[in-house]
Design brief:
By secondary structure, the chain is of the alpha+beta class. The chain folds into two domains: 197 residues, no CATH class; 103 residues, Immunoglobulin-like (Sandwich). The chain contains eight helices and seven strands; from the N terminus they run ααααααααβββββββ. A hairpin with a 2-residue loop joins strand 3 and strand 4. Helix 5 packs antiparallel against helix 7 and helix 6 packs antiparallel against helix 8. The termini are close together. The structure holds 2-acetamido-2-deoxy-beta-D-glucopyranose (NAG) (4 copies). The site of one 2-acetamido-2-deoxy-beta-D-glucopyranose (NAG) has 4 residues, from helix 4.
Length: 362
Amino acid sequence: MHFSSGLVASMAIILPILALPTSSTQSKLLPAADAVPGESSLFVNYAGKKTPLASKWMKAIAPSASGPAGPDDLLFQNLLSAEWIIYSFYQQAVETFSPCDFTKLGLPNSTYQRIAEIRDNEAGHVRIFQNQISDNSMKPGPCKYEYGFGHNASIFLALQVYIEVSSMAFLTGLSLLAEANISKSALMAIGQVETRHNTWSLIDVYNTSPFSGPSDTIYPYANQILDMTNAFIVPGSCPTENPVYPTPRQDLPRMAFLGNGTTGRPGSNIQFVFDPTGNQPKFVDGTDYYAVFYHGVNTVSVPYDPTKNSVQIPKPFDPDTGIVMVSIADQVDAPTEESVVAGPLIILEQPGILTLKEPSVA
Ligand SMILES: *[C@@H]1O[C@H](CO)[C@@H](O)[C@H](O)[C@H]1NC(C)=O
Ligand SMILES: *[C@@H]1O[C@H](CO)[C@@H](O)[C@H](O)[C@H]1NC(C)=O
Ligand SMILES: *[C@@H]1O[C@H](CO)[C@@H](O)[C@H](O)[C@H]1NC(C)=O
Ligand SMILES: *[C@@H]1O[C@H](CO)[C@@H](O)[C@H](O)[C@H]1NC(C)=O
């Protein structure tokens, strides 16, 4: 996930553009308050700049009943807060860009329409997750977000890859926490849609292989990935009723890597840095630390010397496929959430053109 001192510093001052219709035609396309995902084109191929979400859904919704929380309410509260970040990313893009911003880059004329369609899908996810939270629990509302793409369509498209691979990874991880069987299936079904969004980009935007090898990457602690996305939230901008995001929040030190002296590929050395604006790791003398790498269904631990911050990305991992994730732990293979002391970090392997340009390179 991204941070660079410039980007983080700018977050506090640049507020996202408000959701406003940009033409009289579009302002007549009022969102249907009762539109149901799976039964409405608003969540499929609506192309307007105005949000497909009715205003009654665009806020924190107080519990309408009292009683015990549903078994997966907490999970879906965390996921809904994450979804607001993802939906708003696309909504801001739909408002900011026009089809020509993408054709100017040599991309297909359909690019803007696809981004609007992804926005529609994400708005559908907002409604699905709101419905998954029982009436006994509050449904978190949207905050203000700053993603740092400004008016630059190339930066937006690069960030889009990170946002999609992050959501594929945290949805996979959240299925480990789901209580109800139907919740597990719902998470899998949503994750597959995020994968399609990523696949579209690999084919149409980056003109590269759409495949990521036999398995996408499993990272066991989904809330740690969600926590990384806090970097997009304008501090203090969330509805006061919202629960802490994510709950529970470890607020681990955020990691990036130096782009010089590495290819970012399996077998290459990589030097980590910690976000100077956030928490710093507290390394205890005499404790052994490990850089724990994840790729596909594999986990590989490499001894980590906190005075050097430099390790080799495991050579056996497939090159050029999907992502590699890494965190620093005080036990081999990070068997518990608490054993992780910093990270995680996503190293994007595909498309390779973004590996060293990634927003996380300090
Ligand atoms: C995209 O294609 C449509 C239909 O062919 C055309 O009307 C429109 O002007 C094109 N837009 C751009 C940005 O090239
Ligand atoms: C967008 O950002 C890229 C990467 O930083 C840069 O090379 C390009 O010139 C920018 N485009 C515009 C239109 O500013
Ligand atoms: C989930 O499905 C399995 C297999 O049908 C069943 O044994 C289990 O009780 C179900 N779990 C819940 C929480 O319903
Ligand atoms: C990479 O850049 C950092 C910070 O600018 C510098 O300290 C370090 O020596 C560089 N490493 C290599 C291998 O060039």
